[in-house]
Amino acid sequence: MGARSSATRPRAVGRAAGLGLGGATLLTLLSGCSIADWGDAFGHFGWPSRGISLQAHEMYDLWIASTIAALVVGFGVWGLIFWCVIRYRKRGDELPVQTRFNMPMEILYTVTPVLIVAVLFYYTAIVQTSVDKLSKDPDQIVEVVGFKWNWQFNYRDGMGAEANTVASTVGSSDVIPILVLPVGQKIRFEETSRDVIHSFWVPEMLFKRDVMPGNVRNVFEATLDKEGRYVGRCAELCGTYHAFMNFELVVVSPANFEKFLTSKKGGASTPEAMAAIGFTGEAAYAEKTEPFNTRRQQHSWNQPETVAAGK
Ligand SMILES: [Cu+2]
Questions:
Q1: How far is the CA of 142 from the centre of ligand 1 (A)?
Q2: Distance, CA 218 to ligand 1 centroid (Å)?
Q3: Over the stretch 154-172, which tens digit does the pLDDT of each residue have?
Q4: 202-246 pLDDT, tens digit each
Q5: CA torsion 212→216→222→226, rounded to 10°?
Q6: Contact at 8 Å (CB) between 222 and 251?
Q7: Which residues are found with C-beta within 5 Å of the ion, ligand 1?
Q8: Residue 35 CA, ligand 1 centroid: distance in Å
């Protein structure tokens, strides 16, 4: 009698826990509409936002769903640990019933993690394939050129290294480079570096990709769906002024983008072309980040009013 009840109880608990975990995980992954609400409620679980591209939204949903699934499993495990610690705490000197090999339990805690990993792998593979997808007919092609320690963005008339640059923006020690792109269009980014490995990263795109020197030309596509101005950074430690390698992404309407590109093609500077689409005065320059002082001075790092050693 006693042996029977102690054998059925863990089985029932295990079954309930398994059902709860599986159900919650499945519910979270399937109910796509509420994922954004969950993200909002919990500060995006560490990500900056829901993202500004269609690809970003897919990655965001995967991230939030995975985190919720992990938390559900975590709470389940913590709950079981505390339940065991309290329910089976030492009450006297009598040795408790010694049991070994509970087959249902062993199967449960082998199958459940395998299932969780399989589900995570399945959704990750789908999202990764979608994010890496390249179309045959992108609407815009921009070449991202990284160099120590700044960025150049070339608007191209075709795909590949053989295409021509029709307009270009470049950053300097005094000017943050601005990358203007249209909303709602398929944009193909082709990356190349003049020297070492850099990494193109716009945190709001929830995406970064290495910019390689030599023959490797990393390519990805994104369809931006939110107008605005966003800071971009180098995400690969590339040398002394790596931390200063910022740029600004400006997402505008397709009409304004055409106007901007036409101005640039006509020989306008980037601030002039920005002014042509309504970003006048200070707005013609980067707003989200500013050039850092790159003067290195012994004992007085980054202090403007001091003289460098040896001068
Ligand atoms: Cu860099």
A1: 18
A2: 15
A3: 999 999 999 999 999 999 8
A4: 999 999 999 999 999 999 999 999 999 999 999 999 998 999 999
A5: 20
A6: no
A7: 198, 234, 238, 245
A8: 34
